[in-house]
Sequence to fold (451 residues):
Amino acid sequence: VSGSRWEQAAAAGGAIFAVFLIAGLAMQSVAVGGVEDESRAEVVARFSDNGNELWVEVGGLLVGFAMFFLLPFLARLRMSLRSAEGANAVFSTAAIAGGVVMATLLAAATAVNVAAFSSYDYYDAYEVPPDAVLLLQSVFFYLQGFALVGGAVLVGATSAVALKARHFPKWLAVAGLALATVCTFGTWALFVFVPLPLLVLWILVVSVLLVVRERRALATSRADLPTRS
Amino acid sequence: VTASEASRRWVGVAGLVLVLSFVVSFLIVFPGAPEAIRSDETILDWYSDSVNQYRFVAAAMIGGILGISFLVFIVGFRKMLAEARAPEVLVELAYAAGLVFLAVLAVGGAIGSSIAATLVFSDTFELDPDTARIVSTIGNIWIAAFAGIPGAVFLGVTSFACRRTGLLPTWLVWLGFVLTPFVCLAYPGFGLNTLLLIVWILVVSIVLLRRRETGTDLPDPS
Fold:
């Protein structure tokens, strides 16, 4: 761990991602509400509502911010895992691949949801097709489910390195492996709601641990400077 | 010289193939295609023409070439940055951002061509023009808008790493810095700004190939 300012900032990206993603998903869920139990007329009303459109568009923007900050975190995490793994860096590569899949599918899911709510406002000739928007809600849900599978690879691979090389605390590694197992079920795991917030919480904790480690490394290197001169 | 001649050649050629395949697929699909603001009849007429349906299928195939060339571009650029001793965090970040950009665009291509593909492959599918509007809004606007975010990270970080290593000329580094915020604003720009990244890739590819042809050495990062 070299502890440069840039690496600290990159590590902190995970915590910022967690905050933006939870806020963005919460705003989108306000607009989506209980659409699966509504009548066709209620579905049309929900997807024709300018207030709902605003919630989803601002929520989508926050998910975009989250994605922006997730990328430096992934890069920093890979560096950290690779240094722990040594020459045969299999798990660190798997971790970044899982993170890339997660970020991609979260973005795609959000794009689908934003389009379903915003089309009404954009096109004069458009009338909300209830079957199509319900279909898109399923696409939105399943994309998030597959994003969770990407997250499972990220968490599982990181936890494997943590156990093997004692890179992170043992409790975090064991919890990570359990979480990765649950997240592997993807859409099924989403039905019980908890795995996605736990995945975000895991990223937050790892981010904080990396930042603390960077700060200590930076402080140590500064303390060493006078003796070197 | 810190970056190998072969890497520069591959990155330059891949960048040109990428831009060319993007332009060709764009020209195949978009001229004459009805915007989502058009009437129901205009949209249905356009999609009912089998030539127009096959345009999307052809563009999707060219999209495969685009994807492969972009992969070669980002993997090659990663190698060049690593050889030029760019900070590892920047190398990894540019790589991850490039991969996410490509993957998001691939999802957009799949969704954007799904209506035409269904019409080609199914004899019973009946298109609802409003469904076509939503699908094109996802594929052409919002996916492109979200792709702009990792695209901007790729552009900004690569430019920053090149500034530290001297891998690209200074004016091109600054062009990257100027374009980065515009690409990042693809969300309010409805995805159009993402095209700026393609322009940057074109310029970078030409510069890398010209350096090879003229034998111009890259500056030593130290």
Remarks:
- The CA atoms of residues 149 and 184 of chain A lie 5 Å apart.
